[in-house]
Amino acid sequence: MSSGKDNDDKALLAAALAGLLPDDPPGAARAAALRARILDTARRSRTQVVRAGEGDWIPFVPGIHIKSLRRDPHSRTQTSLWRIEAGAVIPPHPHASEEECLVLSGSVVHDGVEYRSGDYLLAAPGERHQAFTSPEGALLLIRGELLPDPARVRALLENPPDA
């Protein structure tokens, strides 16, 4: 429930925006209170943080676990970490939208080229990747389209539909 003071503040802000400020500025106490509220709001961090020990590593396909860092259903994008065990394979897949991949540690091999820590890959919309392999294991940061439910992917891999 809004207090009378909040309503007065909103009215004062609306008047200021409309260029209709009263001739007399608010008193010193009121001005200080307004300034404090504005600075308090500005100091509040809007940054979302996921600490290293937070979040769940969800099995995706054999040898690959994914930890979601951010999901945005509105833009249909997500940012996630992919932990790939040595010898695991990321199956061939298409890209409906752009995908960014940064190799944080280890390495992955695609189309005969090895990508190591610090390497960045950008897949364009419509690109279809061949399988990625990871002979030594890897940790990837991937930003791209929303992934399907990992349980659904596992079920499809274990029982592929008849072609």
UniProtKB/TrEMBL annotation:
Signal peptide: none annotated. Residues 47-141 form the ChrR-like cupin domain. This is ChrR-like cupin domain-containing protein. Pfam families: Cupin_7. It comes from Arenimonas soli. It comes from the Bacteria.
